[in-house]
Amino acid sequence: MKRALILGITGQDGAYLAQLFLSKGYKVFGTFRRASTPNFWRLMALGLEDKIELISVDLTDMSSMISALEIAQPNEVYNMAASSYVADSFECPLANLDVTGMAVARLLEAIRIVNKDIKFYQSSSSEMYGNHCDPQLGAHYEKSRMEPISPYGVAKLAAHHLVNIYRQTGMYCVSGILFNHESPLRGLDFVTRKITNTVAKIKLGLCKDLILGNISVRRDWGYAPEYMEAVWLMMQQDQPDDYAIGTGVSHTVEEFAYGTGCIADVKFDIKQNPMLYRPLDIKFLECWTGPTKEKLNWSTKTRFGQLVEIMVKADIQRWTDWQDGKTFPWDAPLYPNEAKVLRR
Ligand code: NAP
User: Is a pLDDT exceeding 80 seen at residue 344?
Assistant: First the structure.
């Protein structure tokens, strides 16, 4: 039986990856960060909490990584942990560089010390490209120039280069450059989920306005569970490599918002708040999917409209269930503004 260790199993990708590995017969270990109140709602929503082994690891602490490797004795390690909210990286750049970038050096060293035959996957990000886009290609792939414009992007790029260096020393290290991927398990701070959650509340008469920052930026949005299949495939190849994963189609935030309204059958105006703008923002991100399709024989199946539908229907269902007095694992009660609505 193969053994996988997932760092950041409490996050969106970590939870879906755990679900996928259990379906493939893996023994699954996952790391969580010890907090005064732990964050297991995604694992509970997927019904996984009793099927995995949890180990406490902090990304700032290499000895906790070494212990986790010794306990789990994994064949494969997947690093899905990071401080993943780009806007926050402008507010806490040093913490972000440490948790998102330096932590990968700690992890790679921990693997080299414990057992350098362990395969390693790093979650790289399309945020590494910044605003550079090859004008002839009009999209990005694994060999495109990278000029990040956020502390998060810089941290991810440092980690991406580290993975490449350790790969050259003979370790099996893979980097998946994932474009934005979403799902009902996406955190509420992220714009797609903020939209679907707010539109669900508007539909049920629980709020009136959708307030957003910059709605003109274009992103290539895919469906997270599907992307985890690609992540697993990357780690099954004979040779480690870099892969860009996206849909090949981009949309603006405004299109996402009005698409959500259409599916939910709700009319609203978007209010823009300049306070929600990032200091610097990437205008356009779109994946050139050709090389990865060829290398992995994988491509995305869920289209943009289907993704929006899955997300908004899930949020409408949650708020309806809550109105009906049902209890279930979700994140809204953890947010002060949502909790205010819940208390009404
Ligand atoms: P997520 O939902 O924010 O999950 C991040 C995970 O990292 C959580 O389990 C979180 O733990 C953990 N973490 C954060 N700081 C930590 C610390 N100091 N010590 C230990 N654990 C810590 O992110 P995601 O959407 O699943 O993304 C997974 C990975 O892919 C991340 O590296 C992200 O940067 C990258 N990525 C995501 C996207 C996307 O569109 N989703 C695109 C490209 C790359 P808590 O639960 O305790 O917070």
Answer: no
Question: CA-to-CA distance for 167 and 243, rounded, in angstroms?
Answer: 14
Number of Cβ within 10 Å of residue 62's Cβ equals 18
Q: Is pLDDT at 298 greater than 80 in this prediction?
A: yes
Beta carbon of 183 within 6 Å of any ligand 1 atom: no
Rounded distance from Cα 187 to ligand 1 centre (Å) = 10
Tell me what pLDDT residue 336 has: 86
Residue 36: the pLDDT is: 83
Q: Quote the crossing angle between the two packed helices 62-72 and 103-114, to the nearest 10°.
A: 40
Query: Does 11 contact ligand 1 (Cβ within 6 A)?
Result: yes
User: Ligand 1: which atom is nearest the Cα of residue 156?
Assistant: 34
Residue in 33, 45, 342 with CA at minimum distance from that of residue 184:
45
- Rounded to the nearest 10°, the torsion over CA 159, 163, 166, 170 is 170
Say if ligand 1 is within 6 A of residue 185 CB.
Answer: no
- Tell me the residue ranges of DSSP E strands in 130-180: 173-178
pLDDT over 80 at 343, yes or no: no
* Structure tokens that stand for 188 in this block: 């509420």
Q: What are the pLDDT digits (tens) for 2-40?
A: 999 999 999 999 999 999 999 999 999 999 998 888 899
Task: Compute CA distances 96 → 77, 99, 106, 241, whole Å.
Answer: 21, 5, 15, 25
Structural tokens at position 182: 């979403």
140-150, pLDDT tens digit by residue?
999 999 999 99
For the Cβ of 219 lying below 6 angstroms from any atom of ligand 1, the answer is: no
Element (H, E) at 119: strand 119-125
C-alpha dihedral over 165, 166, 167, 170, to 10 degrees? 130
91 is catalytic: no
Distance (Å) from CA 11 to ligand 1 centroid: 5
Question: Whose alpha carbon is nearest atom 1 of ligand 1?
Answer: 11
Q: Quickly state the pLDDT bin for 342 (edges 50, 70, 90).
A: confident
Average pLDDT of 293-313? Answer: 97
